[in-house]
Amino acid sequence: MPRPIQATIHAEALRHNLARARQAAPDARVWAVVKANAYGHGIERVFDSLRGADGFALLDLDEARRVRELGWRGPVLLLEGVFEQRDLELCSRLDLWHTVHCSEQIDMLAAHKTQSGHRVFLKLNSGMNRLGFAPAHFRAAWTRLNALPQVEEISLITHFSDADGPKGLSAQVRVFESVAWDLPGERTLGNSAAVLRHGADAAVRADWVRPGIAIYGSAPDYPEHEAAHWDLRPTMSLNSRIIGVQTLLPGDTVGYGSSFVAEQPLRVGVVACGYADGYPRHCPTGTPVLVDGLRTRSLGRVSMDMIVVDLTPMPQAGMGSEVTLWGRSAHGAQLPIDDVARAGGTVGYELMCALAPRVPVVVAD
Fold this sequence. Notes:
Number of helices: 12
CATH architecture of the largest domain: Alpha-Beta Barrel
CATH class of the largest domain: Alpha Beta
CATH superfamily of the largest domain: Alanine racemase
Largest sheet: 8 strands, parallel, barrel
Helix content: 25-40%
CATH topology of the largest domain: TIM Barrel
Strand content: 25-35%
Number of strands: 19
Number of domains: 2
Structural class: alpha/beta
Radius of gyration: 23 Å
């Protein structure tokens, strides 16, 4: 039989979370963000569940090609735009909308020979200080783009740095409105945190919203709020089984480096899951895990193919017992991916994206 580890993509949860994003931002159209191979879920696996979106937003041409090959004929947005001039040829062929965030991309458009005009999203650096034109140069960039025969329509875009925290986004909204207040074109500002926390604000939801992590069932403002607070459902579960049982005496150790030392007699289970499966190596003793639907903890270091868990809370568990590393248990319990990520000093995004190719994946409702 195959090694007993499997990831499950929950189609119903994807549909539900997309509907939640739409509900949180009434009257706005919704980009389903599927960058990073749909946050590790697989574009092909999530497509049917997310085709209720108004468009797909992603990063590179390969992802855009895959969405088109799946039959999508609606808007597709390249969030970082093109990386070299020849990319514009594929944008024309695949009818891709693309972000323009620097003068070099305007130069590429000016030199591009095309029979059809491009739909571009001019990006403002409103405070994130990654990509985008500084406020002092934004209108000049718009004027230059507007003069190009290669450009059919200009929309406006920015990205919030603190929508998930106490600093908020009012300062960035003010910057955006002060520069773009009289410019024509559709606008898109809101990421997942902005949509869930501030989607009722018309200035924030604008014409389009761009939910990413919220679609995949992780809270964008964890630990202030858990996914359940926003009525988000887990879209990925990672499950395995106990493949060995050991009984420890006081003083016995577990795993490489003997980092865990038993203080009392202890029964432990060995799980077929390790960092080669995408489970974070730096998750310490105490990282939550479910065995037969009951919450327990990991012990010792994560190794390449195995982790060890404490079976004290479930004395009946043994060989073959179900283990939920994150997501849903067959017993009905859930382990939020954010809880696991926090224990490992990271975020749910990374756990999703790090799922290893060797892990079998199925799609189910």
